[in-house]
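Fold sample X.
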Amino acid sequence: MIFVNSLCLISLTLEGLNCQFFNLDSLRFLTSITNLTKLIEPMALSIVRGNDPMIKDKLRRLIRSIFRKYVVPDRNESSNPFLDLKEKAKIKEVKTILTGIIRECQPLSQNSLQELNEIEKNNYQVLPKRLSLIDNQIIKTLQDQYDLQHDAFYNLKQVEMEETEETKQITMSVYSPQIFQLIRKKDNAMINIEKSLNLIDNYESIMNIIGPDGGKSGEFFFFSYDNKLILKTITQQEVQSFLGRLGQFTYHYLSEQLTLLSKIYGIYSFNDGQKEQFIILQRNISQAPKQYILRTYDLKGSEYEREVKIQNNEELSKKTLKDINFMNLEKQVKISYDSNLEIVRALTLDCQLLQKLKLMDYSLLIQKVDWDSYCFESQTKIQDIMDQFQSNYYIIQSSEEFGIYYHIAIIDYLQEWTAKKVIERQGKQLLYTNQDPSALEPFEYGERFKKKLIEQIFQR
């Protein structure tokens, strides 16, 4: 910008001197240079101003609104010729799910849960109690500490959602709403459900969820537009598995200063009379845009079928890698000594809880994120990124790679030791006698998880 202004000033000065004193034809080209710089000046100014973060954000919003208004003229997709009826129904279904969850996750106006305990009692049912899995002393402690009603752990709230332009008629069930309100409240510095799931900002995410099969598979996996939250379908068995252990999980979530279990913020079901979907709400552990996630590892502590084949020049950031890949590419998580101590302590306590609750087949998810590049390109301070997380151990700086940060969590921890898993283990042992199968009974699974993962990949 300075160069353009200087060139324009010099050209004008020489042009004036030529007209006044020299009157040389050879210097007439200065008029063209002056006109050219006048033409370039507003373009250069636009580029300079375009680098301002506030202007960038306004431009993105303007482009997004123009796209929605003119490229996709009907926001309700009713007149879009490229969408068939099933695709339109899927989009409306997604909007219904988001709208319902936003309504049921509204923050309370008081510090206690007394307000939630008193409203809409007629909409509540009491779920059957799975007494063999309930720790009554823990539940009594939580009820006294947080002023919970007697059946807070077994409540099922049903909400009839009406047909609108954005939503379909459906019955929404909210499991143990008071308890999940407590869990969300502890993490309210990291999550804002109304902001993350609003329909306007999630327009592209909603359209993208259709996928190549047009949404016919029935599976639901949704990232919010800001990458902070995940919604995904689970089985009814997994719902029962978690609710039967809700007291222990809630106590662990709330009492431990640091837990690396990927917290569940809500369990819902949606029934339109033809099918019923069970959906959980969770926090996305890295909250990073996909292009800045360099590696994603899903580790179980087993080597049996735990390698993703990598072709030459294949982009690793687009794959979810496994145990053998991790040992070949990383070997260890490279973080500071103090961070190692805290992570090992938290993972050990989490693993002991899952052993106690007789759960298995969970994974250690490790993501490496290039937050330095993100900060440079978005003109954001790294401290602002770290402040989005409730603990410094949810975003840990690499001790060897500048600008790279680790995000670590235990995921998919709702699998019980069932007859199907017993048969799977025995079958694999017969076929592969020298291999360590991924399916082990819960205590053995936890011991292997601690030995092969917690004790080996974190530096001592």
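Fold sample Y, listed below.
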Amino acid sequence: MIRVSRYLFSKRANHAEIAIIGGGTGGINTAAQLIRDGHFNPNEIAIIDPSRIHAYQPGWTMVGKHQNQLIGGGLYDVNKTLKPLEDVLPRGVHQYHETVVEIDAPNNLIKTASGNLISYDQLIIASGIQLDFTQIKGAQEYIEDENYPVSTIYTAQYASKMNKLVENFKGGNILFTEPQMPIKCGGAPQKIMYLTHDRLRKKGIEAKIEIHMAKATVFGVPKYADILSKIIQQKGIHIQLKNKLIEVQDHKAIFENQDTKEITVKEFDLLHLVPPMKAPSFIAKSGLGDAGGFVNVHPGTLQHVQYQNIWGLGDSSNLPTSKTAAAVMAQTPVLVNNLVRALQLHDKPIPDYKGYTSCPIFTSQTELLLAEFKYDSKLDETFPFLQNNPNRLMFWMKTKFFPLAYWQFMIRGYWAGRDGFRVFMD
């Protein structure tokens, strides 16, 4: 049955029954499932995002080649990670290429940087997490220099630069860093390190590799921490925990010990840094965030703790689990089901999300360790017999199957991550 919105003949032109802030994985996946399941018509949904490009961010760690355009670690084509947003959005969904500056939650209004007002019945915040290079003195200056040996795989542009730096590396000291949590894809700082190590090993290039982490452990789940610690030792990589990068100088990295506050200086020939990350400022400004500025939602239902018609998922939420695409895939059906229960059935949301997330960690250019867990760092493995060590099958899934599932099925609302293909309602 086609429903007619009560705002159809209203003078308030900029209205959406479902407003989604963010055109990334969370926003597109949610819109696609709401439409695919028959809950809403496309013209009842609006997506607000200033970018006109949608990125498959997991691809930035990998390596590939297209007219010499390699990215990150050497397994994937940089051009395959980017598509026009309009090509991946469900057809008929309204698009607002604008930046949200504030949400007037009591009045159901979104304010944009251009002064535009968009009203909504239900609001989904999936605006992602922002890189903050300013927290590391000198980082922005050096990383923007195309010829300087500092980069990161957290954008497509800098991932391409990182690949070129590794390709042209002749030997010396390589530093990898990881900032304080939260960051998106917490395993990525290690992935690029292992891939770089393997690339250089195969070329016979000697490198002294170190990784400096602000946290106190290699990985937040004990099982995988033990496995990765052994791999680091086997590869001859030096690890320094509780050591935060605070400044970049000419071929020098300045670190601060998180316990003693002691300052150390490390010289490098190549530096891969991961910037600290933060929630978009409009969340805290609108009174919708927790102490860290992330959307304050119930950990099981994904409904905002104060406003029943506001929902959050993905990197911009305060869900106490690792911020990954796999987590978004698990969160989306829970959010969709609960939104429909609240709006159409006038029923209470069900706390079905248990914190599932996944981190596929490359350990070489041929093997991968699949880490799966949920709230409280408890194991939640799909293939337990294949997740005690890195292996080639998991590597194949990450490099071949996951990108296919993302571009062909996720954006159309067919894919539910670990749960596979979705069954739709008539």
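Sample Y note: Residues 1-13, 63-72 have pLDDT under 50 and may be disordered.
Also: The CA atoms of residues 326 and 418 lie 8 Å apart.
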